[in-house]
Amino acid sequence: MHQIDGQTIDLQADSQPYISIPESEYLELRNQVGYWKGMHQKALLREEGLKQEIKEKDGQIRDLKNRLFGKKTEKRPSKTEKANPKSNENKRPRGQQPGSEGHGLTERPDLPVVYEQACFPQNPVCPCCGLPYTLDGSSGPETQIIEVDVKAYTRRIVRQTGTKICSCKGVPQTITAPMPPKLMPKSPYGISIWADVLLNKFRYCQPTNRLLNHYEELGLPISAGTISGGLNNLKELFEPICNRLYLQQMTEDRFHQDESSWKVLKKLKVNRK
Question: Exposure string (b/e) for 144-170, b if CB count within 10 Å is 16 or more?
Fold first, then answer.
């Protein structure tokens, strides 16, 4: 309470009291404030990471539950359908319906045609008098059968030779035609076999052992070591192609872009009890 010119003025005390502490203690408190602020920030980041991990785990759990207990594409008949099999008779069957117009046989004009003549196994005779029929050269109705003929064979190449008839010196007396080009100089197998190996392995993703078993059925047994060694030799022939593909890829402005979304999950042990 203070009096000025006979008037009483009430001055409010400071609402924030001050405490005097040593400077060393003040600095220590400042350091602790910074430390605990940093720890709080780390805790928030850790909490956010744990929330994200829980979200991913929940997604995996939902996917696994859907695989185990979700609806299947192949529906099993219900109990009512089993009890009343006559109720299914009125349902429309699958596939092409009876009486509907079909698309006919598929034309294949690009296939080569091999002409054959179907002859009688024995001379036909009249079933009444026994006299034989006179076979004429006219052609009858035709029938088409599509076949695939796959067989292994050996190319026995006889190289042509020539003998000189001149009297020139310094030239050989006889010459021999050069060998046809081979994919591997020391390999007895031709280009068709190695092309078949590459297509079956990398285009159709079939194991090499299956192809070798097929060759053995055709009378051409080939060891797996021969194919493995040949593939190692072919690797050098594909290096220019790989280098060219790499140079072409380096000119692109995007990498590892794929529109498909293949979600791969780790295999987990599921208790089916």
Answer: eeeeeeeeeeeeeeeeeeeeeeeeeee
For the chain, domain boundaries: 188-251
Measure the CA angle with vertex 57, ends 53 and 63; round to 5°.
150
- 187: tokens are 């390999």
| Polymer length of the chain | 273
Using alpha carbons, list the distances in angstroms from residue 142 to 94, 139, 263: 34, 8, 55
* Rounded distance between C-alpha atoms, residue 166 and residue 68, angstroms: 88
Report the distance separating Cα 215 and Cα 209, nearest Å.
Answer: 10
* Concatenated DSSP letters of 12-52: PPPSS------HHHHHHHHHHHHHHHHHHHHHHHHHHHHHH
**pLDDT for the residue numbered 185:** 85
Query: Which residues are CB-contacts of 201 (< 8 A; sequence separation ≥ 6)?
Result: 208, 211
**Residue 116: pLDDT over 80:** yes
Predicted confidence (pLDDT) per residue in 61-103, tens digit:
988 888 888 776 666 666 666 666 655 566 777 877 888 877 7
Tokens 């310094």, located at residue: 170
Looking up tokens 């042990």, which residue turns up? 269
3-class DSSP state of 92? coil
Residue 208 near residue 195 (C-beta atoms within 8 A): no
Which residue type is seen at 220? Answer: L
Q: What is the pLDDT of residue 26?
A: 86
Task: Specify the pairing of strand 174-176 against strand 161-163.
Answer: antiparallel
Any alpha helices (H) in the chain, and if so which ranges? 23-69, 79-83, 191-198, 208-217, 224-237, 239-250
